[in-house]
Each structure stands twice: as structure tokens, then as C-alpha cells.
Amino acid sequence: MGASNQSKIRVLVLIDQLNVPRWINEIISFIQNSSHFIIIGLVVNKAPKAADNTNGYRILRKVDRLTFQFNPNPFDRVALSKELQNDVLFVSPKQKKFSDYFLNEDIQELKSLNPDVILRFGFRILRGDILNIAPLGIWSLHHADNDINRGGPPGFWEVINKEPVTGVTLQRLSEDLDGGTVIGKSFIKTDYTSFNRNQAALFWAGVELFKSKLAALAMGELTVFPNTGDNNIHFPAFYSHPLYKDTANIRSIRYGVSLAFRAIKRKVEDILHFQQWSIGYSIKAGLETSLFRYKYLTPPKNCIWADPFLVEDTTGIYLFAEQKYGSKPGEIVCFKYDAVTKSFEFIDVVLKEPFHLSYPFVFELNERFCMIPESGDNKQIILYEAQNFPFNWQKKKILIDNIAAYDATLHQHDGLWYMFATVKTNEGLSANELLHIYYTDDLVEGEWKAHKMNPVKHDVRGARPAGRLFNFNGKLIRPGQIGAHKYGFGIQFFEITELTPQAFKEQPVSEIKPYWRKDLLATHTFNYLSGLSVIDVQKLIRKF
Fold first, then answer.
1. Which H or E element spans position 142?
2. CATH code of the domain covering residue 108
């Protein structure tokens, strides 16, 4: 088995075979490439495994995977590196119904390796002494939110029950099924039409959660409490939901028909209707919190106007927004406020690139107007400067290169510039789940450094920025998108209570959901300036 190296965190890995799903290989590769860890061995399960699922569920899953494919597929199998395969222990645990118990001789051999932590990527439910041989215990992913879903299959019942989000829980295992000490959670938007796509997205989210918590452990930023019932810290949480199991064969057919009907219904809606974003605004001394009072700027029929931002100069107040026609890339347009008519007049397209642009974060810097539009698909965060405001925007600098970052939002705080953005650290992730922060002492010439806690948020319900940060009654407020049950569904306002290069804390204080008009589907950007509040809304309109 592996050689001793006391300066590193000693990791033991439990798997079912040496060819592992891609998502497991991603985590193991992360550990191998880290200077903080050493993998001291692989423990491979030799015991026969009974079929995990009913025939009905397996057939339903196969049809779903053929119909709704996901790329990259986390379940494709790859061989672990030959270096790791030199340190392998094959074991045959004692099997009891759903549980595995390691034999005493195997327990003693594993103890002799002095593992600091054990990572479980195989076997069934583990019970017995194996749970206690590593000081940091056994870490395992439960691909659900263990507060509301214990059992399995992963990512399935959330689709059937039309839950807005699907969670994944990283926990230290205990004797209580899916009831161990929670190390962290992540949440994605539930895909209502395909549980294969939902599962795939969920497993990739679990990879990023696992990696971030391992990194936090290596940096000394994570405390993993022992499993002692209530951890001697909190009153224990009761689990009052069912223990979920595979669906029976006949019910699988019924669920399959239901999912097919959902997919067909959505396809018909896409053919007949267009989801159009438009901009709402209100004139009031102070924040206008009664959304039914807003007036609207409505774009042409095959067009959207979204992501409104406001700035003011000596000539008036300007509104910048994304404009997008059909499948063409988004571009940035500008409106000017008319104090006489108390409305906005369309000026023109002011910034266009071969790639998609949206979310025009406009601000003043050194008496010049600058803009950072969202260009995540181009994998750059670009700073533009207006040569003849509001026209003639020229590239000033690429602030961060080779990054799939979305809706970059700046804020100056305690002498530093902070940038908030969601980042796709893996092609299997959406652009809405992982909030990252970067900081610098000089916006243009300084080096943008990653926040120590990145990603600071693993939750589709508020991670992605939804407008500029602002101060309200001495509190720093950050708008974030509620990305479920559909993209851009609503806006969650957070009060930031701590913001330094090493720490970040926020708490929800209010929210906006699209309930004030019957024809609204979503709302995902809010901004405020000089008695003007702006918001965007999405409506379903007929194509024909």
C-alpha cells in the first residue's frame, strides 16, 4: 500500500472497481494533483452486488438516457491511473440486506495505514467499525438534500415531485442512513422533463462541492465534527419525509408516460410561444417596492430587452440593457430618460461583438464611463470604456482571461474592488450555481485574486448576480437570481454581513417573485438610481 507522508492529509479511497465513473475520477484526480493530500491506497469491493434497481426503473432510465443525453456524461467509465493501481486492497465485506460490514482483519489492515480521512465512492451502506478508524471519518456524497430526501434513486424523485431544486449533500457517514454530519450542500435547478439530465447535473455539482470542501480542509478552514448523535452542538434535526425507494414496475410506466407528456407539452409551448423579456421602471423618491406600480418598455415581438442598468451624467439618466433577436448573440442597447414624458426613449445599439453580450454593468471610473458586459461564453471578463458616452465603447482591458464567468458585478469596499460572478468550473455545470468572488486593489492595473472561500455559494437560489450591490439604511445589499423553478425565476436580496479577502457572509432579507401579474414567468435583474427603480420581467407571448 501507499508510502507514509505525515506532512500531507492521508486519504483512503473506497470503490467498487478500478474502472470508475468520470465524476469519481474527477475528484480522485483533484486529490492526486494537490500538494496537500496523499492517496495511501484504494480499497476495492470484491463482494457481489445485487441489482440496485427494479426492472421498471432500469428500463425507464435507459430510455431517458437515450432520449435526453448530457455532455459531458459523468457516468462514462474511465480507468484510474496506473500509479494508484499499485496500492490496492481487495476486500469482501460481510453483507446484511442493504449494509456492508468490514471483516476484522480488513479493519486492522486499514487502521495500520493511519488514514486521516476515508472517501466512499463504492460499497453499499457502511456500518460497524469502518466508520471510526479515520479521525476525520468517512466522507460520502448523498445525491439529494438529506433534510427532505433519503434513500434513492438520486435525482429522480425531485423530478417526479416537481421540486424546484435538487440538492446534493456531502456528509460524514454515521449509522443513521443519510443522517451523518453534514459537511456541505449544493443545490441545482430541477430538470422537470428528464431525470437523466437532472442526475448528471447533480453529480457534477457534487464533484465541485466535494473538491471545494477538500480544499477548505487542506487550508484549515473546515472543521469536521465527530458523529455523536447531535454533535454536542445543535438539537438533532428530525427527518419527517419518506424513505424513498425505487419505483415499482407498473408505476415506472406511469411515470414514464408523465415525463413524456411533460416533454411534449414543453415542445409544443416552444413552437407556439416566445418567452420575452421586457423592462419595468418606476419613478419614486426611494425604492419602489410595489411591483404592480411599474410601467414597461416592450421590445419588438421577436426580441428581448433584459438586464437593465442605470447611470447618470450631466446630460441625464441612461438605461443600458441586453437586446437579443431570436438565436442571434445578445448586444447592448441604450435608452435615455425623458423628464418631460417620464419615460425612456430608445437610442441605439451601443456595443456589439461576434459573441454574446448581456448584463451591461456600467459604472463611472476616474470621470470616464466603463462597462463590464457578461461574455461568459467567450471565457473572458472584459472592461470597456466609452470614448463618446453613451457611444463608442472600446476594449480597455481583459480583467480575467480563460474563465467562464457570468454577470460580473463590481463593488468597492474597504479600499478594495470586489467582483462577484458565477463561474462554470466544469462543463457539466450550469452558469447559475457557484458564486465566486475576486478582489484587487487596482481595478485596471491590479491582479485579480480569487477569494479564499471560492466558491462562496453553492446554490442556484441566489448565487448568480441580479444587479449592482447597494447600501440601504447602512446595510450592504446584494441582489441574486433565484434560478429555480426556472431560469431567472426571481430575485433574492441578501445583506452582506462580512466581506474581506478571507471571509464572506450574507443572509437573505427579501425577495421578488413574478406574482404581481398573471402573465409573468420570471424576473431576474433589479437596479436603482436617483429615484428610478428598474427591473426586468419575462412573459409568454404567441409567435403567431
1. strand 138-142
2. 3.40.50.170
For residues 377, 78, 214 and 226, what is the CA-based torsion angle, rounded to 10 degrees?
140
SS3 label, residue 107: helix
User: What's the alpha-carbon Rg for the chain, to the nearest Å?
Assistant: 26
455 prior amide bond cis, ω within 30: yes
- Would you say residue 396 lies in a domain? no
pLDDT digits (tens, 9 = 90+) for 131-170: 999 999 999 999 999 999 988 899 999 999 999 999 999 9
Asked if residue 255 belongs to a domain, the reply is: no
Domain count of the fold of the chain: 1
DSSP codes joined into one string, 432-499: SSEEEEEEESSTTTSPPEE-TT-SSEEBTEEEEE-S--EEETTEEEEEEEE--SSTT-EEEEEEEEEE
Q: Is the pLDDT of residue 230 over 70?
A: no
pTM for the predicted model, two decimal places: 0.93
Q: Is the Cβ–Cβ distance between 375 and 413 less than 8 Å?
A: no
H helix or E strand, kind and range, residue 23: helix 22-32
Secondary structure class of 322 (helix, strand, coil): strand
In a domain, 438, yes or no: no
Give dist(CA 310, CA 307) in Å, integer: 10
DSSP string over 327-350 = TSPPEEEEEEEETTTTEEEEEEEE
Calculate what percentage of the chain has a pLDDT beyond 70.
96
What average pLDDT does this structure show over 239-264?
Answer: 86
pLDDT at residue 476 in the model:
97
